[in-house]
């Protein structure tokens, strides 16, 4: 799996979703390389198993200390 092929806009964190982003966002965990689509509503992560929002970042529950990268379909 390579993200280079994904030509979606890269968002550094939910703070980047300044336009009251809502809808589907792809989260990518830099620790375990997990890739999953989650729902965001008004810059807030809709409660999802395995992912937790802290401030403007989303963290995976695998124990990775680095925040997930976010990709939004353009
Ligand atoms: Zn992970």
Characterization of this structure:
The chain is mostly beta strands. 0% of the residues lie in helices and 42% in strands. The protein has strands at residues 9-11, 22-28, 35-41, 44-45, 51-54, 57-60, 69-72. The protein has a five-stranded antiparallel beta sheet, with no helix packed on it. The chain has a two-stranded antiparallel sheet with strand order 5-6. The two termini are 20 Å apart. Residues 1-6 have low confidence and may be disordered.
Mean pLDDT rating: 78
How many distinct helices?
A: 0
Strand content: 35-45%
Number of DSSP E strands: 7
Low-confidence stretches: 1-6
Secondary-structure element series: EEEEEEE
Which shape, going by the Cα principal axes?
globular
Distance between the termini: 20 Å
Rg, Cα atoms, Å: 11 Å
* Strand adjacency order, main sheet: 1-7-2-3-4
What is the total domain count? 1
Question: How much helicity do the residues have?
Answer: under 10%
> Major beta sheet, specifics?
5 strands, antiparallel
Bound ions, cofactors and other small molecules, one mention each: zinc ion
Classify the secondary structure makeup into a structural class.
mainly beta
Walk me through the topology.
Blueprint lengths: L8 E3 L10 E7 L6 E7 L2 E2 L5 E4 L2 E4 L8 E4 L2
Antiparallel strand pairs: 1-7, 2-3, 2-7, 3-4, 5-6
The structure holds zinc ion.
Short description:
This protein is an all-beta fold and 74 residues long. The chain has strands spanning 9-11, 22-28, 35-41, 44-45, 51-54, 57-60, 69-72.
């Amino acid at each position: 799996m390579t993200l280079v092929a994904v030509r979606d806009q890269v968002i550094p964190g939910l703070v980047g979703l300044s336009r009251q982003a809502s809808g589907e966002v792809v989260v990518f965990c830099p620790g375990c390389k997990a890739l999953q689509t989650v729902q965001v509503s008004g810059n807030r992560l809709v409660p999802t198993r395995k992912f937790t929002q802290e401030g403007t970042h989303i963290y995976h529950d695998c124990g990775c200390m680095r925040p997930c990268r976010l990709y939004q379909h353009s």
